[in-house]
């Protein structure tokens, strides 16, 4: 069952809160087909947050302490469900041969889906890793290769299975960190834009796509209260494209140079022929088909009149979504990587508007492109002696190969456009995830007419409920492999290292920082970054107490105002003598 507030994808491409669903509603199945809801159940159970594992750690660093807005991680792929809900998982299982020269053997590592008895008497399917040994002889090598091929034939490259949230803990750490959930792109759409422009749904002519591109460009660099777009005049291909794309709609882009001919031109999209000698009418807003779309389809919000990406765009027809994103990239995007060999691309779009950030993320995912959001605090910077105020900004980062390249093929800006890729796959995108315990919440479950996977609003593929979902269940054992970092709130199952005393664990990041700088807080175990150490040094030394009550001298900890201790020798070489020597140097009594 899912927590109240979980948004599910309906068959028509809109989304609804799970608590609003009723029997006979239709959801969108993973294959895009509609699937009927036959019943709704409600309960109160403890929930778990299933969340995309990214490298973001919004709570770390100085920026996060100073700016509360940066403590939020925006638009991470996640959903909250109960402990007994089934997840749709995949684990790679390609068998491998390893050479072990010390033991003179070939070791074949392979993974299979095994039946396991749980402590509460259920039989579940869970992936397990196995090893088989062969002698290091020519015959042994052939046997090993045959065995590997046989295993690959039996189990395939991937294990696909469903597993309840509570059973994730039974997985070996190595397998758990390579286990993936998936999100699935949308191949169909609602055809709202073409219906508005042509009267027919899904009639995505060249002109409709040109309109979609202009809308994207306006969302990026347009003026909120009139059909005007700011364009870099050095980018001649972009200006040409704007002329070209607006022509089918009877729109003539014009701009006036101001007293200072600046590089940025404010291009107005006039409707109707250019005014001749006799001053024939020429309209900016009236009857202007572009402005009609902007206002009628709510690209301009009611009320405050701000720019937004209306939610129908999230599930528009595929080409419309692509053309729209291309316009947005032409305006505000930055294309970072392009390696001819791997074809991997990264595009980032900066925006200060949350609605535009949401739209970018949803449309990217609907096209099978991974999207994450990072943020920048507001600040004042100096450019060529002038003070410039930068607002709080969202950096929307999109990663992909040929799917992203296909969007860029609609772009017109000189250095952003790319050729149309030869093939485009619309396969699901896989991502690793964490499971984090939450409190007791209202939960809703749905039963479906067919046994199919369905999509959430964020395109994550999920199952609907089975009978075990109805009642609250608890974990029989506490998590077997879960580890906690003593220096930060991070929890995980892999990449933890022994701390300075050897009795507790540090996460990979804190461990790296500690090894690099050698500073740690005696009071709260915090490991400062090099930059924070610098700030602490600038503030100067002071006297504080160790947790045992011994006075010590040192720099202050940013987090708790305790005293930072410096370890000259770190890692396994550190000896007891070293520890006591350091302790003497820092103790106030000895210095005097
Ligand atoms: Zn359920
Ligand atoms: Zn840590
Ligand atoms: Zn501290």
TrEMBL record:
The lineage of its organism: Eukaryota, Fungi, Dikarya, Ascomycota, Saccharomycotina. The gene is TPHA0O01760. It holds the Pfam family Hom_end. It comes from the Eukaryota. It comes from Tetrapisispora phaffii (strain ATCC 24235 / CBS 4417 / NBRC 1672 / NRRL Y-8282 / UCD 70-5) (Yeast). PROSITE patterns: INTEIN_ENDONUCLEASE. One of its GO terms (molecular function) is DNA binding. InterPro entries: Hint_dom_sf, Hom_end_hint, Homing_endonuc_PI-Sce, Homing_endonucl, INTEIN, Intein_endonuc_central. Residues 214-369 form the DOD-type homing endonuclease domain. One of its GO terms (biological process) is gene conversion at mating-type locus. This is DOD-type homing endonuclease domain-containing protein.
């Amino acid at each position: 069952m899912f927590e109240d507030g979980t948004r599910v994808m309906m068959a028509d491409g809109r989304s609804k809160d799970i608590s609003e669903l009723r029997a006979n509603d239709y959801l969108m199945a993973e294959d895009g087909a509609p699937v009927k809801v036959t019943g709704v159940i409600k309960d109160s159970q403890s929930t778990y947050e299933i969340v995309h594992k990214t490298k973001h750690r919004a709570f770390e660093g100085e920026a996060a302490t100073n700016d509360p807005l940066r403590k939020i991680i925006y638009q991470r792929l996640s959903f909250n469900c109960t402990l007994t809900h089934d997840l749709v998982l995949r684990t790679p299982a390609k068998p491998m041969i390893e050479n072990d020269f010390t033991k003179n053997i070939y070791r074949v590592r392979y993974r299979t889906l095994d039946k396991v008895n749980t402590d509460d008497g259920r039989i579940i399917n869970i992936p397990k890793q196995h090893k088989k040994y062969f002698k290091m002889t020519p015959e042994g090598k052939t046997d090993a290769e045959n065995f590997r091929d046989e295993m690959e034939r039996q189990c395939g490259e991937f294990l696909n299975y469903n597993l309840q949230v509570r059973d994730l803990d039974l997985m070996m750490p190595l397998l758990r960190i390579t286990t993936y959930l998936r999100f699935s792109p949308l191949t169909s759409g609602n055809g709202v834009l073409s219906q508005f422009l042509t009267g027919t749904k899904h009639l995505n002519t060249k002109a409709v796509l040109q309109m979609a591109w202009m809308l994207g460009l306006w969302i990026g660099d347009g003026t909120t209260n009139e059909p005007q777009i700011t364009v870099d005049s050095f980018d001649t291909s972009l200006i040409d494209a704007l002329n070209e794309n607006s022509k089918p709609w009877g729109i003539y882009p014009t701009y006036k140079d101001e007293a200072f001919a600046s590089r940025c031109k404010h291009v107005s999209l006039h409707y109707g022929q250019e005014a001749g000698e006799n001053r024939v009418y020429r309209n900016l807003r009236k009857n202007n088909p572009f402005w009609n779309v902007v206002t009628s389809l709510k690209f301009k919000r009611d009320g405050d009149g701000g720019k937004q990406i209306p939610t129908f765009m999230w599930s528009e027809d595929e080409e419309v979504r692509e053309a729209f994103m291309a316009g947005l990239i032409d305006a505000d995007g930055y294309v970072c990587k392009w390696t001819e060999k791997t074809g991997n691309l990264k595009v980032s779009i900066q925006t200060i508007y949350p609605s535009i950030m949401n739209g970018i993320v949803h449309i990217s995912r609907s096209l099978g492109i991974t999207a994450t959001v990072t943020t920048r605090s507001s600040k004042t910077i100096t450019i060529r002696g002038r003070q410039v105020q930068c607002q709080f900004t969202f950096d929307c980062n999109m990663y992909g190969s040929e799917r992203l390249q296909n969007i860029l093929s609609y772009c017109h800006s000189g250095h952003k456009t790319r050729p149309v890729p030869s093939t485009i796959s619309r396969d699901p995108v896989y991502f690793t995830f964490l499971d984090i315990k939450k409190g007791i919440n209202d939960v809703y479950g749905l039963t479906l007419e067919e046994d199919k996977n369905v999509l959430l609003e964020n395109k994550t593929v999920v199952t609907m409920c089975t009978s075990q979902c109805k009642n609250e269940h608890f974990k029989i054992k506490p998590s077997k492999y879960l580890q906690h970092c003593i220096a930060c709130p991070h929890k995980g199952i892999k990449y933890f290292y022994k701390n300075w005393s050897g009795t507790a664990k540090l996460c990979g990041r804190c461990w790296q920082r500690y090894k690099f700088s050698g500073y740690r807080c005696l009071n709260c175990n915090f490991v400062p970054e090099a930059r924070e150490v610098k700030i602490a040094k600038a503030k100067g030394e002071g006297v504080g107490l160790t947790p045992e009550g011994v006075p010590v001298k040192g720099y202050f900890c940013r987090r708790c105002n305790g005293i930072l201790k410096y370890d000259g020798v770190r890692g396994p070489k550190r000896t007891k003598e070293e520890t006591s020597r350091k302790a003497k140097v820092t103790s106030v009594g000895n210095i005097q």
